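Dear colleague,

Following up on Tuesday's group meeting, I ran the structure prediction for the two-component complex that the binding team flagged. I've pasted the input sequences exactly as they went in, so you can double-check that nothing got truncated or mislabelled along the way. The structure tokens for the whole assembly follow below. Feel free to forward this to whoever is handling the docking comparison.

Inputs:
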Amino acid sequence: MKQKKDKSDWLSVLLSFAAKSKWKMILSMFCSLISVMGGFLPYVCLYKIMQLFIFGSPTVLVFLFWCGIAMLGYFLYVVFFGLSTVLSHSAAYHILYDLRMAIADRLMKAPLGNVTGSAIGHLKNIMVEKVEGIERPLAHMIPELGANIVLALIVFIYLFVIDWRMGLASMVTLPFAAIPMIVSGKGFNEKYSAYMAANDHVNSVIVEYVSGIEVVKTFNQTTSSYEKFSEAIRAFQRFTLDWFQSSWKAMNLVMSILPTTFLGTLPVGLILYKFEIITPVELIVCLVLALSLLPVLMKATAFITEMKSMQYNVSGAKELLDMEILKDSLQEVFPASYDISFDNVTFSYTGQKEDVVLHNLNFKIPENSFTALVGPSGGGKSTIAKLIARFWDTTNGAIYIGDTNIKNIPLKQLSNFVSFVTQDNFLFNCSLKENIRLGNPNASDEEIYAAAKAACCDDFITKLPNGYDTSAGEAGKSLSGGEKQRISIARAILKNAPIIILDEATAFTDPQNEEQIQKSIAALTKGKTLLVIAHRLSTIQNANQIIVLENGKILDSGTHNDLLKNCALYCTMWEAHIGAKHWAVSQKGGC
Amino acid sequence: MFHSIKRLLHWAGGYRKRLYLGCLCSFLSVWCTAIPIVIAAWTLGLVIADFRGENSLEWNIIWLSLFGIVISIFLRYIFSYWKAKLQESIGYEIAAEERLKIGNVLKRVSLGYFSKNSTGDILTAITGDLSSLELQGMKLIDAIVNGYINLLAIVIILLIVCPMAALTSLVGAILSALALNGISKKSRKNAPTKQISQERITDASLEYIHGLPIVKSFGQEGASIEEWKTACEKHKDINLKIMHGFVPNNCLHLFALKIASVLLILISGIFTIQGNLTISIFLLIAMFAFMIFGAVENMNDSVHMLGLIDTSMDKLENIENAEFIDEAGRDFSIASYNIDFTDVSFGYGEIEVLHNLSFQIPQNTTTAIVGPSGSGKSTICNLITRFYDVNSGSVKIGGHDVREFTCDSLLKNISMVFQNVYLFNDTIRNNIKFGKSDATEDEIIEAAKKACCHDFIMALPEGYDTMIGEGGSSLSGGEKQRISIARAILKNAPIILLDEATASIDPENEHLIQQAISELIQGKTIVTIAHRLATIENADQILVVDHGKIVQKGTHDQLIQQKGIYRSFINIRERAEGWSIV
């Protein structure tokens, strides 16, 4: 029952995208119909010729005439087939384009947390490969399926008109072929997705192996001693061979029986002739018609597999098209202040009770103050930051900026209020200037330079061959992680939002850059409401408020000195931090 | 077209015998397909004779024809199943072997190979290209080689009954082959364009997904959709253009075959009118005319793909023929572990990054390498492990040039702890075991204990069987680091290269990492790329690298007295480690 629903679902998704190319598709089907009819014409000629030879006295002229008609039929067949494919491919590629745009749009509107929570490779695979996989079956099926069904119907009806027994006889291979087809079709969808999953697994193991090649080299592993690698490959091989063995049995049986339409028509025709129910002419017509069904039936078997792969790929696209949309408010708001307050906030990624990661949080971050979140990793620090930026909506409770629930702030406006500086220093493949300008599209060049100077970027950017016009892709190789970090800080400086959330971003940089990043952060955070996810406690020891988080709950909060007095966890963290600073490599240790 | 087919046959390598047997099965199955038509022509002849009153149609003839058809279906099934079993399976078996083989090849090439050929391209070749070869290779052989074999099977029958008809069908096939060859050439020519467009759309999708958080947080939705939109549009246009380019050849190919079909009827008909052929034979040829080219007709789809498969084979061949860095190496053991750099110069590409470097690292000492980013610190480590070869000069371990060793015999002496921890998407146990593939459970636990991992591993619900990475448990950066140290402890190599993490991963973990490292390095020869003051101060020897040269060398106490890079470096570090935002 559920499967049936799936089936109609993926089709309706596809059809909804096909509406725009409706005329192309109709025209393509029309051409295909002419082509199939043209292809049928030679069979009519064959019948006429056979009749002529058996019962008439064939003259070269009449014979040539029928051959000419057959030639004409094939000419129509080929030309309209060409036209039809041109049209159908064009329609199919337009559908692909629309699908890709719709997916991109949906990703933009979905809660950011859901998007960043999926593996990038998985999303890319759907947007590029799976959507591409729809093209071929789509382009072939649109025109050919319809036309072939029409032809098959005409032939069957004709046969029934001649004699109903002949009509039935021509269909005798259908039930015989249907049995192995149904047997092997059972569980096909599961097998097919298992196959795709196994294939993905093998490829991801290979990607892993190559990405970790330095480790592989250092630890002397070979592909066969690295069990995971060899096992994944062998398992995939076993799986495919097993599956194909069984499907070859069924498919070849179908392919042997189905097109042999003479199985029914010849003996039945002969018997009917023997009883003088049909004439020899009618017998010949029936045999020729049965012959003409052959290409139609061959195509039909090919379509079955194409249909399956299309279903698989469309369902993949549907997974993204069905992503939930984050509700956006249109009513512009004017918060009284930029205080941030959490009111009984509970959050779980899945919405399920057992997956709750933040439990009933209540706290306030006053305007223009400096608050830090500390605690063991996995405690929920970055989840809090992401909730303020509305990567997700809270499961229960609410977050306010000033006195406005952030759900009521239009997303565009919220992004103006909050700058979120993370460790992910992604640069777009445009010039460095444009990368900084993303912070404020209306900024003048001078403002960009000023922001870059404040973020300590000016020096290294002007040293690049094309300065600010160097494209990020080109500069990418020569920029260090710290330099990219500073460019993204410059972007945030230019944006000049009143609230800054900082994932203490210094963790990936080298010492030379560190000082400059620290300077640029100081420039960014001056006079703002600041929330820092801290990794090194010395960075935040002067914060107005430090919130200690453990397992999604607030353990304690206060200033550095308060916490040293009252909070045991904070004390151990601080001591560990101070201690680690002085731990040397050559010192002897133990656990 | 035939050149590509030849390459595919060559690719089948050791399985070629099975391949040819498969072709034989295909040939026989076509004859089985022809049986019902022969029977139909024969009985029709009898019907005509019966109708004209020359001979009467016996009942047993009818049963015989039914029996013949049933037998032919059965035989056809047997032969076509065996064809699939013998032929199609080859692709999957070769692909598996090839995957294992390429993995071992990549292990033995210089790391420079990956930057020269771009890791992305290599990955596409051994995942995407190999997969499509696996899936399509034998199908193409089936479609094209068996397609022509099928034609031949019928032509042989025609040759017996009417040589002229056989000749006609051959001419049709040759004309169509010319058109197909054009398709194959175009497909080969288009392959790079298609690939570029494919790469662009892939890059654009990655940039779009990766950039989403940024454009959203800056309210700039329009900025990133542009490139995606253009890439998709270009992709559509290019593919349509390629597709349209194929259409004329496709039509010519089809038309050549269809004309040949009609000509078959025409020629045999005229022979019959002249009285040179019997009606039965004419009927046989007329019916054959409609099925003789069936397999050849469908070849164009396969030929489209041939160009792509050809480029795929090129790429894989390139990888398999990559030059091993240790081609001339030998397996041997060394007695001491002193490391000597003599006059070493090196560059990754044209630009030299290390200039005439000379220094010694005595066995069982700690050497810290310090210097600004990009000065060549990691490069020094990469030369010790022979991930790359020096341009001039020599790197010696225990008195032997690293180029004398095979990779395996060199690297068994060295353990590395990388700054960017790389763990495999596998269980914790297997990740540690990676250090020594025949380690016992006790050895693994021992190493984990020394690296301060055991406690947190046991606290996980699945303990050592916990999966790391996607879909598995999310460990903190510090925990991952310690697992990578446990891996190195298990290997127990006499030389340790340590690329120190630049900043603490999280404060609680940091002292544990330091403890784990102390366990690892006891009694070993250590080279560390150092950032932390404590590490640097306690080293036996400090090498200060700047712009690919060693500018200062000595102990901390010596160097801090001198004016120079080292002193200012230490000053900056001291300030940075104590920094506070406000």
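The longest strand of chain B covers residues 339-346.

Cheers,
M.
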